[in-house]
Input
Amino acid sequence: AQSVTQLGSHVSVSEGALVLLRCNYSSSVPPYLFWYVQYPNQGLQLLLKYTTGATLVKGINGFEAEFKKSETSFHLTKPSAHMSDAAEYFCAVTHSGGYQKVTFGTGTKLQVIP
Amino acid sequence: NAGVTQTPKFQVLKTGQSMTLQCAQDMNHEYMSWYRQDPGMGLRLIHYSVGAGITDQGEVPNGYNVSRSTTEDFPLRLLSAAPSQTSVYFCACGRLATEAFFGQGTRLTVV
Output
């Protein structure tokens, strides 16, 4: 069984401040981890992913995440928030057994305050 | 190259009506899935397919049917719509253990 917990359904940051969105996972096998972003009235698009190899993963729009096995975490960060980062962010987990068994977190809405 | 196309974008149904949500992809991906998105619940998997002729149930399959006669198409059928099926539905495709590519969604209201 696998699961994802996203701490904080809403996060507010000031423009230019650090963005930190938390994701913890549970998986009985080595996980593949993803962060997706959803802008209003749109589908989800991939920000970044971890499968194997380097544990610090860089994605689009200046985001990055670090896979920490000991903490079962995959937190998403960005050094300086931009107004265009306001969106909902979803963490997801699967494993090498197949893409279709993807479990999503409940999402975190990021608000960026000017 | 359109990616994943869902139709319609919006739909209002009366309780008990049936309808089909269409999903088509031009990425030649083996895997296709249907999710529903409800506030505070993330995305929940309804049905998925690992290739033409092969489908399986996800987390919340009741009230929905799917079929996969071609690689490109994966329609979702609501057999007898209920207010609990009011949601935003997303179709996605992908390859094994890689990211999913999502359509723009269908916003369904059942009254």
In short: The interface with chain B takes residues 4, 9, 32, 34, 41-46, 49, 51, 90, 94-100, 102, 104-107 of chain A (CB under 8 Å). The radius of gyration of chain A is 13 Å. The longest strand of chain A covers residues 19-27. The mean pLDDT of chain A is 91.
